[in-house]
Every structure is written in C-alpha cells, then in structure tokens.
Amino acid sequence: MTEFIDGQQFTSMVVCAHTALSAAKQQLNELNVFPVPDGDTGTNMSMTMQNAVSELNKKHPKTLGAAADCVASGLLRGARGNSGVILSLLFRGIAKKLKGLDRANAVQFAAAMQEGVDAAYKAVMKPAEGTILTVSRLATAAAVEFASNGADLELTLTHALESGQDALADTMNLNPVLKKAGVVDAGGKGYLIIWQAMLECLQGRFEMPEIQEETAKDKADFGAIDDEEITFTFDTVFIVRKTVDKPLEGLRAYLSSIGDCLVIGEDDEAFKVHVHTDIPGNALTEAQKYGTLEVAKIENMRIQHEDVAAGRKAISADDLEDEDALFSDKAPAAPEKEVGVVAVCAGDGLAGLFKELGADAIVTGGQTMNPSTQDILAAVERTPAKTVFVFPNNKNIIMAAQQCQPLTEKRVIVIPTGAVPQGISAMINFDSNADAEELEAVFNESIGTVHTAQVTYAARDSEFDGYHILAGQYLGLLDGALVGSFDSLPHLLDALNDKIEALDPSLISVYYGEDIQTSDAQTTSGIIEARFPDAEVMTINGGQPVYYYMISIE
User: Fold this and answer.
1) From the CA atom positions of the chain, what is the Rg in Å?
2) Beta partners for residue 295, in sequence order
3) Are 514 and 503 in contact (CB under 8 A)?
4) Of 121, 162, 256, 500, which has the maximum CB count within 10 A?
C-alpha cells in the first residue's frame, strides 16, 4: 500500500516508463495502419520520453513538484510528432497541478492526471476520439473516481489501467480504419505502457525488459575518463562495403598498431570498425583496400573531454547533420529585421530552394524523421527577426512547431503546411517588406491553392481503404489520400494522372528524390506533360528521401 508519492519515486517511475517504451517501440510502430513510411508512433514517443529522462539526469530534482516540472520541460522540448506533443501536454498538466508539492496522495495525483487530460484536449484543435486522448481521458476518469472513494495510489493507478485497457480495445470501434486493420491505436497503447511501467515501479516489481537495440557504444563516455587516460585523440567509427573476398586479419593487425579500443564487426557484405587513433585518415585508407567506404564518424576526444569538464555541451559528429545543435547554446539572434522564416524539409535540393526563396533557417526533417520542438526552437532562436514564420511541411510536425510559441520571446507564427509543395508555394509569395499580419494572410491563402501528389513505397503489407497492399509496391497519394498500390511506376502515373485531371492544373512541379536519376525524372515529367499539354510542367531535383516524387499541382 502506497499512500504518498515523492520526487524520487516519480523520477524512478518516469525512467522505468521510458525503458518500457523503448522496449516496445517497434511493437508500437507496427500498429501504424497507413502503409507509407512515416515518423512512427513508437519512435516518436520513445524519443520524446528520452528527453525527459535526460532532463532528470541533469537536474536531479528533489521534490515531487520539481520532478514533475523537469519531466514536463523535457517532454515539451523533446516532443516529436503528434503523439509526442500530446504526451508532453498530458505531463505538463500533471506538473501544473503538482507545482510546489513535496509529495502527493492518490486524490492529488489523480487530480494532476485530470489536469493533464484537460490541457491536452484544450490544446488539440479538433480532438479525435479513438486515440491517445480517449485512452488517457477514460483512464484518468477512473483514477479520479477510485481516489475519491479512498483508494491508495497503487489501487488508483491499477483501476486507471484497467479502464484504459478497455478504452484501448474500444479504439477499434471508434476508428473504422483501426477496426478494418484489426489493431488498436498506437498512441493509446504507448500511453498505457508508460503508466503500467510507472505502477510496477511504484510497487517495486518493475522488471527490466530486453531492448532490441545495439548496446555497443560508438563513442567513449568522455565525462567518465580523465584526459591523461586518452591515449589516442580521435574516436573513429566507419563502415565499409566489401568488394574483395579476403579475411580482415591484416586490417586488424594494422589498426592495432596505430590505435587501441579496436572492435571490428562483420557480416557477408560489410564490416564496421571502431578504433581510437591519432591518424584516422590512415585507418580509412587501409580499410578501403577491402571495400568501399560507406560512412565514417571521427571525433576529437580531447576537445570533447575539455568541453564536458568545463560544463559545456560536447559537440559530436552527429551534430553535423543538425546545424541547430551547433548553435543551441548561443543566445537568440538579435532582431535585425521584422520577419523571418524557418522551414522544415529533407533533401539538399529542397533546402536550397527554400533558402533561395528567403528562408533564414532549415530544420532537417520530415517523413520518418520528425524533428523535436527543441530542434525547431533552436532554428527560431537563431533567426534574426522579431516575428518568425515556421513552415512544418508535414502534418505530423505542426503541433511540435506550435509548442515553440511559449518557449521564446520572439513571435512565432506557424503556417499549417501539410506538405513541402505548400511551403514552397507560400514562400514564392514571401515579401520581406510586408508586415506579419499581411504575410500570414498571404501564406494561408497560398497553401489553399496547392494540391500535392506523392509517390513512395509501401513500408509494410496492409489492407487499407479497400486496397490490398504489399510491402515494396509503389504507392500514389493525392492530398494525403491513397490513390492505389502498383507494381510499376507507369501504372501508378496513369492512375495518378486520372485524379489530377479533375483539378484542371495550370502549373505542375515535379520534385524528384535522392533515389531517382535525372533522366528517369525527365521521363516521368514527360509522361505528365503529355497528359496535360496546356499545363506548365517543371522538373526540380529535390533530393528528398522516402518520396520518389513530390508533385505540386496548381
């Protein structure tokens, strides 16, 4: 029987919740019904929770109120995708109600859970039932009821979980798509995994699940070693695709002679090397005698150790893919102008186009890689403007962008672009001399005139919207609705053009992705141009992942 919960217990409960969520991440991802590759729910929720645990590890809060506030802050900044944002809202309400408390009883804690549900429903413009919102609402209602009848914390959370499980099962009845697929809502299930782990932790019976992830470290824990213990300077990791059939003993002997901490893993097609050395270039050159270098990461451990020892964030090679991380510790850029723009996209071509049209900062992300609120906030802060417009360019990123608004002194206006072509169309009408209100109206009007077609592949076998879809087939979408699945691209284009014809297009822009050759893109554009001879058809190298083609129709 547990009468009260304190800060230490709450901290442990959240850590257990993250551990359980990480273990179930792939299981949650597989509940996603839509076959298009996307920023899956399990991944987004797990990464969001990871940020909360990181905050707890930094601040070591003592009281319950402080711990809840620390978790809410971490979740808010780390929120990824709609599921991550809603999760952050649920815990933000909890923190608000527990503010200033050293500990809480069942009635107080249940009331805090209710505050979280209220906050989530208020923040979501059109709350959809049959989702994490439904599950959290009904589970919390049970918690409030049983707490008011004198139940202790453990019993209160037990009954909340029982009601939550019933609500989760009912999500199939509330959502026809879930019912047809025979699955429950992924976000709702993730929510219950969190609270099940928190209850088991409170009861002292949480068992560490097996997490199906690589546990070997690619880099040293620089904060745990002294500078004199760093024998070699560069932590070097690389992968080589084999092109010759010969054993790696010679490479192993060479690398051992120029460094330490050597680990080589291999399979039939490739091998991965981790080594500490003063001459990483020599290591890469020698390795290429065995195959083709695919990727490499080289980090200066001495500089990183100095940063950690001085209390600074140690910059890693991972930060090179996210320019925001290199500037996250800097003060916000002074407002040199009235308005600025931050755009979210993936692909060098698309990023370059947004820059040419006047965007100040690009946040790398989109489908399959939803950026966090902190990622977007860092770009907002380094934009030298009083008002910053944000183009999420993906429906699953809009809420994360909106969470930036209370976190900065800058005025942030989120234009609800659901796809990259909408963002590009809006930016074509960008006038840096116009005032913010005028621009907001122009942007919103612009995105309403754009239709977006997308060509990608099926990430999984599924039955969706009357289509029997096999993994690997071509998928065509128009404004988010599935046009069909096809074994060949020409057949897909025929079906897609039939749908586009009803839109009476005058301008069609074909953005081709990183896996498409220019000649193939020109062939595709030729097929579209032949179908619509009166429309202007442009072919642009977007370089985007996931989508072979993104097609803007105006």
Assistant:
1) 26
2) 239
3) no
4) 500
Q: What length does the chain have?
A: 554
- pLDDT tens digit at each of 554 positions of the chain: 789 999 999 999 999 999 999 999 888 888 876 666 555 788 889 999 999 999 998 899 999 999 999 999 999 888 888 889 899 999 999 999 999 999 999 999 999 999 999 999 988 767 888 999 999 999 999 999 999 999 999 999 999 999 999 999 999 999 877 887 788 999 999 999 999 999 999 999 988 776 544 333 333 343 444 444 467 888 888 888 888 888 888 998 999 899 887 767 666 677 878 788 989 888 999 999 999 887 788 888 777 666 555 555 556 555 554 444 444 445 677 778 999 999 999 888 999 999 999 999 999 887 767 889 999 999 999 999 999 999 999 998 999 999 999 999 999 999 999 999 999 999 999 998 999 999 999 999 999 999 999 999 887 787 777 788 888 899 999 998 899 999 999 999 999 999 999 999 999 999 999 989 999 999 999 999 999 999 999 999 999 988 999 999 99
Alpha carbon distance 238, 274 (integer Å): 7
With CA atoms as reference, report the closest residue to 123 among 99, 169, 91: 91
Question: CB burial class (10 A; 0-12, 13-18, 19+) of residue 187?
Answer: buried
pTM score, whole prediction: 0.73
- The pair of structure tokens assigned to 512 is 């081709």
Residues 402, 415: Cα–Cα separation, whole Å = 9
Phi-psi region of 298 (alpha: psi -120 to 50; beta: other; left: phi over 0): beta
Neighbours of 222 (CB within 10 A): 21
- Geometric angle at alpha carbon 156, from 151 and 159, rounded to 5°: 120
Contact 140, 161 (CB under 8 A): no
Q: Specify the 3-state DSSP secondary structure of 458.
A: coil
φ, ψ of residue 344 in degrees (nearest 5) = -100, 125
User: Count of alpha carbons within 13 Å of 251, Cβ hemisphere only?
Assistant: 25
Tell whether the torsion through CA atoms of 460, 461, 462 and 465 is positive or negative. Answer: positive
- CB atoms near residue 18 (< 10 Å): 23
Please give the DSSP secondary-structure letter assigned to residue 122.
H
Number of helices (H) and strands (E) in the chain: give both, helices first.
21, 18
Phi, psi of 104 (to 5 degrees): -145, 145
